[in-house]
Amino acid sequence: MAWSCGSCARSRCHxxxxxxxxxxxxxxxxxxxLRRHRRPLRVHEIVTYAQDLGLFSEGMHSRTPQKSLQAxxxxxxxxxxxxxxxxxxxxxxxFLRELLAEAHASEAGDERLDLPHPxxxxxxxxxxxxxxxxxERVLAIPREHxxxxxxxxxxxxxxxxxxxxxxGGPLDYLSRTEAEETDSHKQxxxxxxxxxxxxxxxxxxxxxxxxxxxxxxxxCIGFGGHVSEDDITxxxxxxxxxxxNAVREIQEEIDLAPSGAQVIDSEDVRIxxxxxxxxxxxxxxxxxxVMRYEVKDWAAWERAERGEASINQxxxxxxxxxxxxxxxxxxxxxxxWRALFPVVAKAQPAYKILRKKPFRSAxxxxxxxxxxxxxxxxxRHLTQAFGYVEVNSGRVIxxxxxxPPVPLTPRPHFQELAWEFVRSPDGPSxxxxxxxxxxxRSGARQVVFDGVRQLSTLQALRAASEAxxxxxxxxxxxxxxxxxxxxxxxxxxxxxxxxxxxMRMLSAPVxxxxxxxxAEADAVIYNWAGEDHYGRTLxxxxxxxxxxxxxxxx
Length: 554
Hints:
Blueprint: H1 26-37, E1 41-42, H2 43-53, H3 65-79, E2 86-90, E3 93-96, H4 100-105, E4 137-142, H5 143-146, E5 154-157, H6 161-167, E6 172-175, H7 176-179, E7 185-196, E8 199-205, H8 213-216, E9 219-220, H9 242-253, E10 254-255, E11 269-276, H10 281-284, E12 286-294, H11 298-301, E13 305-306, E14 311-318, H12 331-340, H13 342-346, E15 351-353, E16 364-369, H14 375-386, E17 389-392, H15 393-401, H16 411-422, H17 427-442, E18 447-450, H18 455-464, E19 469-475, H19 478-491, H20 499-506, H21 514-518, E20 523-526, H22 531-544, H23 550-553
Parallel strand pairs: 7-12, 16-18, 16-19, 17-18, 19-20
Antiparallel strand pairs: 1-3, 2-3, 4-6, 4-7, 5-11, 7-8, 8-9, 8-14, 10-13, 11-12, 15-20
């Protein structure tokens, strides 16, 4: 069994809601996703969100996950009576029975926008399915022990001392799904880089690849998995089985037999750091022990093959070749590239244009991205240099909510209320109508919408807007976003937000769709270098898109 981390599908990482099975299932994953989004979803949406949360296990791999989930939901609904947690609300739409009452209780849209009240979802009778028994028990560290040791975001280099302190305190073994029910523990996972000098072994995890999956990061350079009770022996007791797990996982995931390579010696696997990623719900429940295995027999390892079905496109990458594009890798791999091979970070592309057509005529531009990524800076540059007129979605939704915008309303409170608004059946259409109305009132030929965060709002805006919609996504890794946000706060004379508070804001429910917006983008800005080069990057991208500067328009 394999572990896939960061922003790609985490094949051994699961979440639960109190009725979780010991082993993940398609129905279990669907229930978590529907409860999280609280609106009827199509199967492909459920699969996409489940992948983002890492809810698919190794045993759930298939070439057509949408069909597998569709079949299971349909059988569940057709075969059972009145106790199923699932209902079909329309052709191809699925929902949770327990949320029907909430959906029916939602109020009609804002009368000022003159929008029709949406159709309420209706149930389809079924019977609840009993979960299978619990299985694997994984190593987990209680919060009261790890809290002071893991007070950083990202990768912290370590020669083993911090790891020894981490596993030297109280430890628990929890069933996988039990561990995912609570934030009181962090599960320990190994993350091993296989290297030969500047060459790094990489692979593509799993079979759940969407058309634009490379934008989110589907490549990985870390092999490993959850440390479990099975990894503890009299010889591995000192480090709670961490190195033993790393050796076992490498030998399972990489087939050494065809190359003639020898069995891996645990003495050759060394700890180089820890990854603490509190930027997502999944990350908050795991700590990664980063290790490095330096290949000695290059002639044999050069021809190594995959050992598990989830390991695809196994290949060696030369870090000195200048051909490593960080955005193709999931977040944990990005952290390792940046810390252990800094030459890679210096050679990163600054932007990528996927489609020029939406920019070629009069259009409205949506700026998407996470908190601290640089959306507002991009908006300001485009309005000042290229003649766009800004419509700020935060201010528009604040008006709909009857609240002052951030920072007059504290961001966490604003996020909570905004999430309640946009997850209501008519919320996205009401927000889109208000944004389109503001754009029309401006009379501008080119409008930029700053801060759209949901796919549903983007889709509703495409329908409501009189002009074509282009989407520019601003990407900044969570640790970089925190640094950028803190720098801007200090520059404005304000104290920066605490790291934990920032990461909670970054992973708030209202931010759930942000990463998915990246897959819809027409152009992407990679904010690796921060403010110094940002303006020049924006101008270079705008000029390549054929945007006319303000003085040329005037």
